[in-house]
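Worked example

This section walks through a single chain of length 517. The input is the sequence exactly as stored; nothing has been trimmed or padded.
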Amino acid sequence: MKRLRRVFLLFAVFVLSCGAEQIPATNRIDTLVLARQAETGFPPSEPCSDAVFVRRAYIDVIGTLPTADEVRRFLSNRSPTKRAKLIDELLERPEFADYWSLKWCDLLRVKSEFPSNLWPNAVQAYQYWVRDTLRHNMPYDQFVRALLTASGSNFRDAPVNFYRPFQERTPRKIFDTVALVFMGVRLDNSGWSDEQMLGMDAFFAKVAYKKTAEWKEEIVYSDPEKQLLHPVTKAPVLPTPPGKSPLTLEKSADPRVAFADWLTAPDNPWFSKAIVNRIWFWLMGRGIIHEADDIRPDNPPWSPALLAYLQTELVENKYDLKHIYRLILNSDTYQLSSLPTPENAGDEAGFSHYRVRRLDAEVLIDAICRITGTGEEYSSAIPEPFTFIPSSQRTIVLADGSIKSSFLEMFGRPGRDNSLESDRNNNVSVFQTLHMLNSSHIQKKIMDGPRLRKLMTDSPGSTERINQLYLEILSRLPTPQEQKIASDYIAAARSGTAGFYDLAWALLNTNEFILRH
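Given that input, the structure is written out below as tokens.
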């Protein structure tokens, strides 16, 4: 009977859209998107409400739910520029670097064990370096150059770990990752000839490795004696960018420097395109070129003009990635409702409404832990420092891809075995639903969570408790109908405490909590 009543409560909790305020167009992005939507015949949805926006912005920018106080403060603010001000604040918060270092560590395959085999010391140094560059907003061209030209100890010169997670340490394997991560190109779909790819491989032919007396330490360096030989003619292959003449370099020169010069040049046809398309994918749920790491001639962008505009903005603003985030986040396009209209419900490839998708595994468990006041414990069997993670540490800053949990695996955390965006699975499964509904893991957090207990004892009455719970979990106040349903349920429960915990369980199991919307 108790379970039936709880199930009834779960399905009785529903979402009514809050009134949406109109926002004047201030962004070139919107002009370009609207022009493309006019061609496709899918008009945009209404702007999202303030309550939806504050939750969306916190999750998308810093991977963190807003607190009830933060929601109240934003909703009570009457300034017409409050959304732009919130975006600026979020971009400067330390959680921005925490969350986006998680994304970059996925791409860079930061993992102690197989197949990367970086080892914990190197993992910690690497992840800290990535997070530090994001915290200080290092220009993107400098970030990539530091990785591509790195030499030194994997423990002391963190960027050299870029060259280590390869089972086959060949120029082709290195270039395959470089092309995927920094050019958005999958070599098997690139359309490049074998000769063209050999010319690109040659940039990485001198990369060499050697051990030291320190256990698991490795030196990455450029060996002037190494060269790439043509598989047929056996002649040395000269480094050659696509569409360019072969480069003649001094024997002592590091070809990776020449590659970095070519790649990060303002007129490079892949570099700026790949990263602005990837950021658009991260924030909007779909790339302008989709998939975000499958740029090729026969996979055209949804809007070439939009992609070109973002590329120009990145280059003209000296590769400041936060500038691109700010442009997208402030656009009407990003701030549209996730609710489709009858006219745009069939828009699969465009951006007529915000794309609904599930929270990242790390973001979801952190949200549950913050609401309940609990933590997750992670540890690794590798006998090295840094392998015990205190329960107070958030999962989005978990550096090592080798440290796992059944929850993270079930909710699609990537294995970091490749650098594909599709390695992260944010699809909803029946096993995830059952875990949220029935597992002792979630039940224990709800029943034993000190933060929920404090919320219940600190709030002066049933109405205020319900309001506070909605603000904490769904980042909005309940509608009058929801308030009545919850109040009636709690009044009829065997105790107010039991009813309150049931309500928390019901809200945590709503799509409104589990999904970005």
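What to look for: The mean pLDDT is 92.
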